[in-house]
Design brief:
Blueprint (H helix, E strand, L loop, with lengths): L16 H15 L6 E5 L4 E4 L2 E2 L6 E7 L2 H6 L3 E6 L11 E10 H17 L3 E2 L2 E3 L10 E6 L4 E6 L8
Parallel strand pairs: 1-9, 4-6
Antiparallel strand pairs: 2-8, 3-7, 4-5, 9-10
């Protein structure tokens, strides 16, 4: 950072520039910490137990109701946009969710609502537990890249809950 920054009136409360620099470094360290982090878990290094499995407790398609103009709201005449996770899904694998909202205006907004809905449903695709050794920094909301060669499971999962034993 530029040295002239420490000569601003804010830093006049400090007795010297070294104290001001120390304060600035502490606040920068706090400010730039990410909300969620990505961790790596491999069967060769730290996975000691893995019972992850694919569930069918999530929707694979969504039908979003939207309106084109103000008159459609008054008449309650909605248009519908249907989206699914993958175009190659068998018909028996399609589970439909629905979104109805008065604020979904035009097809583009319906698309955005649908994408976000499907993204949140994909988080429910895997269920189970993974026990790891050596990483006490994992917390709920983080992402875990799993590379398990023993079970043949590779991919990114979101951590729903983390319990640490010391």
């Amino acid at each position: 950072m530029d040295e002239s920054f420490y000569e601003t009136p804010f830093f006049d409360i400090f007795d010297d520039n070294e104290e001001a620099k120390k304060y600035q470094q502490q606040t920068e360290a706090l400010r730039y910490k990410p909300v969620s982090q990505v961790h790596l878990a491999t069967s060769e290094t730290n996975i000691i137990f893995n019972n992850m499995r694919v569930t069918d407790e999530f929707n694979t398609a969504v039908r979003v109701a939207y309106y084109e103009d103000q008159e459609d709201i008054k008449d309650s005449s909605y248009e519908y946009l249907t989206m699914q996770l993958d175009d190659n899904l068998r018909s028996s694998s399609i589970r439909l969710g629905e979104i109805y909202g008065g604020g979904i205006h035009k097809k583009f907004m319906a698309y955005r609502y649908g994408v976000e809905y499907l993204r949140s449903e994909v988080e429910k695709m895997y269920d189970g537990t993974i026990r790891l050794i050596g990483n006490s920094r994992i917390k709920a909301g983080d992402h875990l890249y799993v590379y398990d060669t023993i079970r043949g499971l590779t991919g990114l999962v979101k951590v729903r809950e983390a319990t640490h034993h010391f």
